[in-house]
Amino acid sequence: MRILDAIDDALIAQLRQSHEFFWLDATGSTPEQIRHLGTVLDLHPLAVEDSIRFGQRPKLDTYGETALLVLKGGVASKPEDVNPHPLEEIHCHLSGDFIVTLHRGPFPELHTVRTQFAQRASARSEQYHVYKIVDVIVDSFFPILSDLDEEISDLEDAIVAGAGRKQLTEAFRLKRLLLVLRKAVVPMRDVFAREIEVIADLAGLESDSHDYFRDVYDHLIRITDELDSYHEMVSGCTDLYLSAVANRQGETSKQLAIIASIFLPLSFLTGFFGMNFSWEVGHVLVGQWAFLVLGLGTMVASAAFMWWWFHHKGWTGSDG
């Protein structure tokens, strides 16, 4: 199999005339270049129009002896970074003579498989090469899933250590990212479940084994299951955050209730002895002992008794 990274009319014509299978991987092609490529390769006008517009949902469209397979690949980033563009849309034009992959941005995984094909001349079938290209696009989601697993674990630890608004924002960000990834993976899974035999049966495409594409389907099922489980874990993080905030508010309310309860008898005592009735002032509140015992003494004793009672009931300690 020959590998091309630019549109070479003469070389493409030579390869098609000799029926030598080739792979053209183009990045950032302009609409004019895509239209020209469609003319050179006899692509269907609707397929060319889809590749010019991009923004397509994962799908498989057949046009006679050619097919357009639209895939979404995962663009990995470090766990601590926010990735504004987690997906790369890749259009695969297939026929018995070639496979063309078009994408707007760089996709390192395709470059890696290109290097592997170039370094190891393989006697594998054309269908195997198509499978490897599709497989590397699908498998690009696994590094993202690994990073998400680490991020969710760190988020859980952060919430347990001290739930704050930052953790809630992170939980919502992860939930939105998981929804974006799922909207890309589920349509691909459905395509490989229903229509992938169309690729294996393309006219002129040397067949090998249909098990190749079943393997891709198995990977998509695994990715979908992991995305669903991560979504549940993030929802659990949100519930954990709300529970931690509620517990913290309850602890604060308990502390305020204890303080108010201690000051309740103090307010009563100061109010009672501050009424200044003539008999009380002349017969009870007389001398230094009245100030120390009846005044300060009863207040200290009542506060100490209230604190002992709360401690005896186990209300003064934390819930942990």
From TrEMBL:
The keyword tRNA processing does not apply. It is a multi-pass membrane protein. Gene3D superfamilies: CorA soluble domain-like, Magnesium transport protein CorA, transmembrane region. InterPro entries: CorA_cytoplasmic_dom (IPR045861), CorA_TM1_TM2 (IPR045863), MgTranspt_CorA/ZnTranspt_ZntB (IPR002523). It is found in: Cell membrane. The keyword Repeat does not apply. Keywords: Cell membrane, Membrane, Transmembrane, Transmembrane helix, Transport. The chain crosses the membrane at residues 256-277, 289-310. SUPFAM superfamilies: CorA soluble domain-like, Magnesium transport protein CorA, transmembrane region. It comes from the Bacteria. It holds the Pfam family CorA. Belongs to the CorA metal ion transporter (MIT) (TC 1.A.35) family. This is Magnesium/cobalt transporter CorA.
